[in-house]
Each structure stands twice: as C-alpha cells, then as structure tokens.
Write a structure and sequence with these properties.
This protein has about 160 residues and is α+β, with helices and mostly antiparallel strands. It has helices spanning about 1-20, 25-40, 45-50, 70-80, 145-165; strands at about 50-60, 65, 90-95, 100-110, 110-125, 125-135.
Length: about 160
C-alpha cells in the first residue's frame, strides 16, 4: 500500500512539475514593454490582447477603477485618435512566484514621473497583465501643497462614497 501511495505522489509531482514553466524576468519585462509600446503606437488590439480577460486598470484619479470592458470603452477614443499614452520604463523590479509575476516600475510619462505596479498572470498559455495600478509620483516636499489643492475635490468624493454605504 505504501508503494502505491508513493507512486501516486511521484506521478502527481512529475505531472504538475512538467507542465509548470515559470516565466523569466526578461520575458516578463518584454511583455510589459510591448504593452506600453502598443499604447504609444495606439494599437488597441495588441494593447488589450496583452491583458487578461478579467483585467483591472487602476488609474491616477480616485474614480478610476476600471474593469476591462469599461477600460476598453474609456480608452477606445484615445486609440482611435492615433495617440493613446506613452509610458517608458525608467526602472523596473520584477518578482515571480509560481505562475504569477509581480512588478513595479518608475515611468517617464506625459504626467512626469509615475509609478506603475502590476501582476502578470498566465491565461490560455500566455502571460498577460491581470492588474495594473498607475500613480503620479509626488515628491514628499510637495505633498502638503498637493493635499491642499485637492482637498475640496476629495471631500466631495468622500461624501459621495459615504452616502452610497
């Protein structure tokens, strides 16, 4: 009985180990670079084909928590005009565990330096962006003035969110 159990464990391990293939950090970086390039080239199909079917994009404004369908609808006019957005990675850190890859990056954008972070997940045999968060990098010395500048907008949005609950 013990040998049957050990054989079962060995076969299970060999089967799952042989189908598992971790993506390399350079390959993961290439996917993110292709995604950014597709936006810069206004290539709608490539851009969204590099995202999972249930991807989420979190934008820089508090209201921007885009599910894929809504993000496509929001983005389409930008892509149709032939100019979406242009993000170039200045620095990127990539971490991987099993078939999930996490990354963060500093970006050169039309908004100045931004921070992006995301998750690549395997879907239909290919790694794709499942979740991305974009934020504007604000120097600590400017936080007080920025906070004051957005105080009124923030309070209105806080009130709106609290009335929903």
């Amino acid at each position: 009985m013990r040998s049957i159990f050990l054989s079962f464990i060995l076969v299970t391990c060999l089967t799952s180990c042989s189908t598992y293939q971790e993506i390399s950090k350079p390959q993961a970086g290439e996917i993110v670079d292709q995604w950014h390039k597709a936006a810069a080239d206004a290539d709608f199909d490539t851009y969204f084909n590099l995202m999972t079917s249930n991807a989420v994009f979190i934008g820089t404004e508090a209201t921007e928590n885009w599910q894929l369908k809504e993000f496509k609808a929001f983005s389409k006019p930008f892509f149709d005009r032939g100019k979406a957005w242009s993000f170039t990675s200045l620095q990127r850190n990539i971490y991987s565990e099993n078939e999930v890859v996490y990354f963060d990056e500093l970006l050169d954008t039309q908004m100045g330096i931004c921070r992006g972070s995301g998750i690549l997940k395997k879907e239909n045999g290919s790694y794709r962006i499942a979740h991305y968060v974009l934020s504007i990098a604000v120097p600590n010395d400017n936080v007080d003035s920025l906070t004051e500048m957005k105080k009124e907008w923030d309070q209105k949005y806080i009130d709106k969110l609290q009335t929903r609950n």
